[in-house]
Write a structure and sequence with these properties.
Layout: H1 2-51, H2 61-72, H3 77-91, H4 95-116, H5 125-144, H6 150-177, H7 188-205, E1 209-210, E2 213-214, H8 215-231, H9 233-250, H10 256-270, H11 275-291, H12 297-316, H13 319-326, H14 333-370, H15 379-394, H16 401-407, H17 409-426, H18 436-441, H19 445-493, H20 502-514, E3 519-526, E4 533-538, H21 543-559, E5 563-570, E6 577-583, E7 587-596, E8 606-614, E9 617-625, H22 629-648, H23 653-666, E10 674-682, E11 687-693, E12 698-702, E13 705-709, E14 725-730, E15 736-740, H24 742-745, H25 754-764, H26 770-784, E16 793-802
Antiparallel strand pairs: 1-2, 3-4, 4-6, 5-6, 7-16, 8-9, 9-10, 10-11, 11-14, 12-13, 12-15, 15-16
Helix pairs in contact: 1-2, 1-3, 1-7, 2-3, 2-4, 2-5, 2-6, 3-4, 4-5, 5-6, 6-7, 7-8, 7-9, 8-9, 8-10, 8-11, 8-12, 8-13, 9-10, 10-11, 11-12, 14-19, 14-22, 15-17, 15-19, 16-17, 17-19, 22-23
Amino acid sequence: MAKQMVSGQKARRWMNWAKGLAGQVQRAGEQFSLVWGIRILLALIGFFLGRAWIVNLFSPFFLSYYAVILGTRRTAAPMVFLSTLAGVATVADDPHRVLISLAALAAYRMVFGWISRRQRSSATEVPLAVVGTDLLVKGLDAAVAGGGNPFTWAVVGLDALLAGILGMIFLQAIPVLCHRAKVRPLRAEEILCLVILFGSMLTGVQGLSFRGLALDAVMSRYLLLIFALIGGSGLGAAVGVVTGVLMTLGNMASIHEIGVLAFSGLLAGLLQEGAKVGVGLGAMIGSILLTAYSSDWHQVSLGLQETVAAFLLFALTPRKWIDYAARFTPGTREYAGVRQEYVRRARDMMASRVREVSEVFAELGQAFNGTAERSVREADDLLNEAVERAAGTVCASCARRSVCWERDFYATYRAMSDTVALMDIDGPIQSRDAPDDLRRRCIRTERMIPALWQSLEVIRRDAFWNRQIRESRELVGAQLQGVSQIMTNLATEIQREMHAATEQEEQVLAALEHIGLHIQQVEIVSLEEGKVNIEITQAMCTGHDESAKLIAPLLSDIVGEPISVGRIQCSLGEGPCTVSFTSSKSFVIRTGVAAAAKDGALLSGDSFALLDVGNGKYAVAISDGMGNGERAQAESRAAVGMLEQLLKAGFDERLSVRTVNDVLMLRSRDEMYATLDLALVDLFTARTEFLKIGAVPSFVKRGDEVFVIQGRGLPIGILDNLSFDAVQQTLRPGDLLIMVSDGVFEAARHTEEREEWLVRRIAQIESWDPQEVADLLVETAVRMNRGDVPDDMTVVAARIDPCQPEWATIHLPGVPKLRRPKGPTDRRRVVGVSGG
């Protein structure tokens, strides 16, 4: 049976490993197919641009396209180089044209190598380099061919100028085609540049046909249908005009296509609400209306067939592809949905911060309301106290005390209780008006009646103030709960849109895609120095390794400060993956805690907190409640819990301590207090602020030396105006911070020099592991008392270590540093005040 269980466990482990491996292979396959799909698309465009000529004289397309691909998608450049050259070869009637094209591509590759080695580059360098390369290669060709004539040199110059202009156009179109536009919506110029890119490609499709249908005419109508469905009549007509003009430049016989395509795009866009059927019907009507008056019915029929073929391709196009493109086109419903999603995310981020502060007020309100019942005193308790006070004053020296309070206890108590009840109703009475039972039993009636009245007055006054305190607590608790509710409601109504650092987001995206990563979205939450927060979304999850080894080192170089992986939000299997990158801290803290309750009990009156409060600070706190057991634990836990909530919400540490003090003072009319020892470490500078409120000294071990951190002040919960010392100390890498409760500090009861004893014991410990140090100190304190635990004991040890990046920064030539915006991009608000 046991062997079967073991074999079953092994089989499950193998199955889990196989499933994990299959998931990794699937994700790798998806990433591979996506990357290569984009490369194949770019290579296909390059092939047709290589075929594109203008009136058989100008060929400016292929060089400008290759130049832009080399600068923006370098990983796809080799395929584009070969495909472009292949396109030139398919239309060249002379091998000389192929050689000239090859020389132009190779020359620009050498020019680009010189450009990429420069530290700074601008967007105008690529078009200028294209113009220079085109002039150089084709000018040398013209010179070698015999010097040429003015017409030849005019053709060379115009070809170079067109290549430069197309380079500027393609610089805006290629990033849109390769998902660069996910950072922000497309501008009108970018959409137009994308249309020109497709129209240029259609120029290279001219001359190709299928079953008598011209592929350039079919594809131009297909392109028109796509854009008409996305952007409506305006965009459809613009696409028709641009594609018609570009096709006419390649073949003057296609000049009539300008009007046909423009009018078809206009009608198709007007019927946009009819979805694919309406758009296709509008394109067909436009094509028929402008060709129906032609005497060549074969041409009319051919145009209609081409429109039908384009509509069939359009109908087979997945709707999600069209919706995806529409998300980045201003004026579409899909684009409005994306903007609403962005605004919603911004509201949710702000609302979460407001809710954190709201939870603090809710916790404070519960602290008041939860203790109101403990301050209520029953009527029987007040009566008992009045009788006991009077008996203690009058009966202490009476000769009949033993008779009244030992033999006839219940009868005596009932007689005095009746008298108190009578005075509570009728007011002060004379001894002759006292109840007969009391006058018969008490020989000091003249003294007892005034004593009972005086006791009743004192008890009434105490009851009055007790009621006032209880009502005040309930009022404060209700107010705090009301503030919490108001802030909760505010969190749900926030409408303000956050600042978006669009330019910086594009810069980060360009750098990441420069190294071949497929990025869906870049969102900069904060660029404040030391508080950088950048969220990057990829189409598929690539795990922690790629983020830590590739993206974080690259961001470190771009931003100019160490960046590390913050958190990863990944949908297992399929779907996008969002990784948050934040400023790396200069130091990390490793902690260890050891504790022992008094007499081996389960509950300890000590509480501690280890908390990353954000903004690069780490809090270590110990609180020792008055006494031991459940009540002391409740007080110390309340102090630490409220301090955690206040610090997490962003309140200043001094304000947080004073708030905790006020709450503890109002929790009960009884004397209740707790010590508080707080160390707040700045993880960027290691500067530490110690706040010691009634706490014993703390210790810092540095090498062979041990430093003592002391502070003065009463415990919290005693005085309204809390006074405490704040000690500033800059720690060093490797320092060991040790904080203890009074149970450990006072363990050496045989000596008055307890501080020196603890300093010597800490110095003798050879281990620098925080957990081992904490365990050894608690063990030593227990041994000092021969195995007993006379008081609650707690030790918290924290070691400050330098934070070493796992991977060196990655510097890309030509990628500039990130320029921080002048306006604040921090989307988080810190609540708090400063003061001593």
